[in-house]
């Protein structure tokens, strides 16, 4: 990395923005701590989709945030950038390791995706990373000492209209994670892995789960052959379909137990829709 330059992602910025000030969490978000998280008995088969829609940022949100960040940075004397560290939250499936992988991808890349391979070849950073100078980093992420007045915080407040709303929104996936973890500890998920493991044994591999296979891949004689066998067994036992079904049950519980948080996120998105056009055309400060 060049001297005086930071490779920067949104996650870093938010950890700085939230230091010393905890976002106000709706009381319903703490329900999982009152007892074990259990799957819903009446499952909404659209639950994962509904949660993913909440964590997905629209193009309008991204453009307005980028413009608001640029306005603030220019006011601090920095040259305008085309892009600033982007908004990013993990979808429900992205919270589960291993990632989804098709037989075709395994045959082409093994366990390394085309994006990861390309990054390794040309040394570029992922799209979530932006290089900022020390001076830019201070104004964008840190702000004044003891004050939450960074350009990122100001941009998010301009877009979402309320600091409490965006602070909960920006860490929404951390609220979802305990529910995903509960599913991964369940007998339902263990059952999928057992079926997969039996399939792998028929191919002369002895692994308890796809994650275990991937972790051993660096030591395997032929990782691409392992990846192909892994994905063939995933396909054979309908791994992704069963995973999605199980996650739906736990995401239904998440939605039922966190209505206050869902209302806040919905309001944040509604505010963004109203504020974005004015930010983009320069009619709101």
Strand arrangement within the widest β-sheet reads: 1-2
Strand content: under 5%
- Cα separation of the termini: 35 Å
Morphology? globular
Number of H- or I-type helical stretches: 14
Largest sheet: 2 strands, antiparallel
Note poorly predicted spans. 9-32, 114-128
Amount of helix? 55-70%
Secondary structure: number of strands: 2
Radius of gyration: 22 Å
Mean pLDDT: 83
Strand and helix order: EHHHHHEHHHHHHHHH
* Class per helix and strand makeup: mainly alpha
Structural account:
The protein is mainly α. It has helices at 10-17, 47-55, 59-75, 103-109, 114-122, 134-142, 151-160, 163-169, 172-184, 187-201, 210-216, 223-236, 239-257, 259-280; strands at residues 5-8, 130-133. It has a two-stranded antiparallel ribbon with strand order 1-2. The longest helix has 22 residues, at 259-280. The chain starts with a strand and ends in a 5-residue tail after the last helix.
């Amino acid at each position: 990395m060049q001297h005086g330059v930071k490779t920067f992602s949104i996650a870093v910025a938010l950890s700085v923005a939230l230091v010393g000030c905890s976002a106000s969490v709706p009381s319903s978000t703490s329900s999982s701590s009152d007892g074990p998280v259990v799957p819903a008995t009446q499952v909404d088969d659209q639950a994962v989709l509904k949660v993913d829609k909440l964590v997905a940022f629209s193009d309008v949100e991204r453009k307005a945030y980028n413009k608001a960040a640029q306005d603030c940075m220019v006011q601090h004397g920095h040259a305008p950038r085309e892009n600033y560290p982007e908004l990013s939250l993990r979808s429900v499936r992205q919270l589960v390791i291993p990632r989804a992988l098709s037989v075709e991808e395994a045959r082409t890349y093994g366990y390394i995706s085309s994006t990861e391979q390309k990054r390794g070849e040309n040394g570029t950073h992922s799209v979530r990373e932006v290089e900022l100078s020390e001076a830019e980093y201070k104004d964008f992420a840190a702000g004044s000492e003891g004050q939450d007045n960074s350009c990122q915080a100001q941009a998010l407040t301009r877009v979402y209209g309320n600091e409490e709303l965006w602070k909960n929104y920006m860490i929404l996936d951390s609220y979802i994670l305990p529910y995903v973890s509960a599913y991964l500890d369940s007998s339902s998920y263990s059952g999928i892995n057992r079926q997969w493991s039996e399939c792998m044994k028929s191919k002369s591999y002895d692994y308890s789960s796809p994650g275990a296979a991937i972790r051993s891949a660096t030591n395997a004689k032929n990782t691409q052959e392992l990846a192909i066998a892994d994905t063939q067994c995933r396909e054979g036992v309908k791994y992704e379909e069963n995973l999605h079904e199980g996650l739906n049950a736990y995401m239904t519980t998440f939605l039922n137990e966190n209505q206050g948080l869902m209302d806040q996120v919905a309001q944040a998105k509604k505010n963004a829709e109203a504020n974005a056009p004015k930010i983009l055309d320069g009619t709101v400060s």
